[in-house]
């Protein structure tokens, strides 16, 4: 019973984080600002909701798989954000109007 | 599982479903292609979370395996999309550097046209 209460609270917090992320994506006006809100849901929202599910289900094969999803999401999220930001900066014609850009040569 | 938790998980799924629909609207309206990529990324995250909640809700373990596959596919899709755009843009820049006689106005036009294609 206590486990279900703790897990339910974590899931509620996680869903609140997702609602914040959607609101932020609508509220900000530029992609590089919107990415902040979007990656909020990727990391914290996923950790809270899946952590709550782990607490509810106890130590089973299911909870190990949920943990694997959390770890993968935390590793992949920054990589995706970095690539999206790089694509945005490289293709925007007037990026200097939006933010400061340091010109550099990279070989990735 | 107590009936309160049962209803609570169902409500969470509905709320996340509304979030998916709102992200879809953002993906359609987004002025640039990166807006769309960010919105699609959010849709994939929320779908994963909905499927994880469903796997506990229905007590069906196999749905978590589907979640893992979905997370991998979303990651690979975004990496491939952005890498294609970056490589294409880099080639464009190198061509501009090789020509180096043109002024920027014309090149910016082609860059904007390239974005639409992506």
Layout of strands and helices, then pairs:
The complex is a heterodimer of chains A (108) and B (118).
Chain A (H helix, E strand, L loop, with lengths): L1 H26 L3 H27 L3 H31 L3 H4 L10
Helix pairs in contact in A: 1-2, 2-3
Chain B lengths: L2 H27 L3 H25 L4 H38 L4 H14 L1
How do the SSEs of chain A run, as a string of H and E? HHHH
Summed up, the domain count of chain B is: 1
Largest sheet of chain B, described in full? none
pLDDT average of chain B, as an integer? 84
Number of helices of chain B: 4
Q: In angstroms, what is the radius of gyration of chain A?
A: 18 Å
Low-confidence stretches of chain B: 109-118
Distance between the termini of chain B: 48 Å
CA-atom Rg of chain B in angstroms: 21 Å
**Biggest interface in this structure?**
A-B, 47 and 51 residues
Percent of residues in β-strands of chain A: under 5%
Helix content of chain A: over 70%
Overall geometry of chain B comes to elongated
Please give a structural write-up:
The complex is a heterodimer of chains A (108) and B (118). With 108 residues, chain A is mainly α. Chain A has one domain (2-98). Chain A has helices at 2-27, 31-57, 61-91, 95-98. The longest helix of chain A has 31 residues, at 61-91. Chain A is elongated and about 55 Å long. Chain A starts with a helix and ends in a 10-residue tail after the last helix. The model of chain A has no long low-confidence stretch (mean pLDDT 88). Chain B is mainly alpha-helical and 118 residues long. Chain B has one domain (3-117). In chain B, 88% of the residues lie in helices and 0% in strands. Chain B contains 4 helices and no strands. Chain B has helices spanning 3-29, 33-57, 62-99, 104-117. The longest helix of chain B has 38 residues, at 62-99. Chain B is elongated.
């Amino acid at each position: 019973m206590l486990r279900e209460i703790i897990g339910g609270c974590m899931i509620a917090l996680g869903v609140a984080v997702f609602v914040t992320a959607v609101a932020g994506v609508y509220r900000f006006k530029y992609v590089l600002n919107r990415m902040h809100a979007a990656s909020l849901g990727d990391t914290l929202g996923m950790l809270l909701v899946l952590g709550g599910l782990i607490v509810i289900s106890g130590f089973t094969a299911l909870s190990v798989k949920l943990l694997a999803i959390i770890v993968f999401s935390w590793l992949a999220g920054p990589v995706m954000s970095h690539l999206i930001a790089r694509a945005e900066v490289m293709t925007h014609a007037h990026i200097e109007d939006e933010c400061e850009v340091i010109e550099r040569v990279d070989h990735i | 599982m107590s009936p309160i938790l049962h209803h609570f998980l169902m409500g969470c799924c509905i709320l996340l479903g509304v979030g998916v629909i709102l992200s879809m609207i953002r993906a359609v309206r987004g002025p640039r292609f990166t807006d769309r990529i960010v919105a699609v990324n959010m849709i994939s995250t929320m779908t994963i979370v909905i499927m994880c909640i469903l796997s506990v809700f229905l007590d069906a373990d196999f749905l978590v395996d589907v979640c893992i596959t979905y997370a991998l596919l979303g990651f690979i899709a975004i990496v491939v999309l952005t890498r294609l755009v970056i490589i294409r843009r880099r080639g464009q820049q190198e061509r501009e550097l090789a020509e180096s006689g043109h002024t920027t106005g014309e090149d910016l036009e082609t860059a904007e046209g390239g974005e639409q294609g992506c």
